[in-house]
């Protein structure tokens, strides 16, 4: 999500230039928007007004985002961040905005580690902002930064192969959102935990996470649609094509009504893969070409280039000319992307965090069982506790003298045991 900057200032000439830039952009006159913004930057630069240079550069970055010129946008947002750090004006909100957009651009080009780093800095800035200006943050709805930014950071960490780091954040969000009754954050966290399970081929546990989101009517339809699609992926990987098709179909129906073209593209991509695995090449081609017609911004989505490769393979048995055309498209788009994606699978961090999820799930189940037993047997337990307390009290009086003789020896033994326990833990951590 992009966040256009709020224009403030007392200099009418400058404000008019920036305002005209946005008007031109709204009228789809990009060259004029760029021209007005450049004039605004020149105006501020001549007067040494660093903060208004920040606003102008941020506006240039925003124009680049809107026109999908991400290279120019990244340079302008980077300049804006540099000028903001030099400015006497402390504007934490705009710093968050700039960092978020830098993260979005890095993610577009599959540089997930840098995207995560920008989101982390944005989150740290947001914490400072909320701490210094709690009333303002609450009034403007900016407390959501404290939930959204860690979530976005976790997604980028997951994409970069840092499953352990991503998982730790998602587990915290799971516990926190469940405690607060925040179904939106809970659904997002569980969906991402399911994806980690899916990546680790733990399909049944992944289905549990996805099912909670997919079949919870309190959750927004677009989020439920994503979970339904992921549920379809899990069934497809298990070889249950009938169930996979059912969930893909339901996901697509929801997305056509509630989700973006990009989100629809992703479902059609997976739906086509299912048809291809079933041997229905014609049906697969139909789904994939519909995906291309639905979402026409593949140039900014390197992860989606795989559709060209799949279309090439599907067309090999039907139309060699089209197969060659899609093969050329795939080759021309994939080279740089392959370097970035290399070594992101079979990551030991994934295995480690998968075990951690299992431990959390096991702990939650054990606590539920213990609570059920306590509820069932608490009257009897209370009587036993009172009786034992009476007996132990008199026994304690009898043993007091004997215990005094042994106490120093036991303290030394306990200290030695604790020291050994700490050493053992250090060795295990290594």
From TrEMBL:
InterPro entries: TPR-like_helical_dom_sf, TPR_rpt
Extent of the TPR repeats: 225-258
Superkingdom in the source lineage: Bacteria
Residues passing through the membrane, by range: 377-399
Matches recorded under Gene3D superfamilies: Tetratricopeptide repeat domain (1.25.40.10)
Record Pfam families: TPR_1
Keyword Transmembrane helix: yes
Keywords from the named record: Membrane, TPR repeat, Transmembrane, Transmembrane helix
Annotated SMART domains: TPR
Name this polypeptide is given: MalT-like TPR region domain-containing protein
Native organism: Roseivirga ehrenbergii (strain DSM 102268 / JCM 13514 / KCTC 12282 / NCIMB 14502 / KMM 6017)
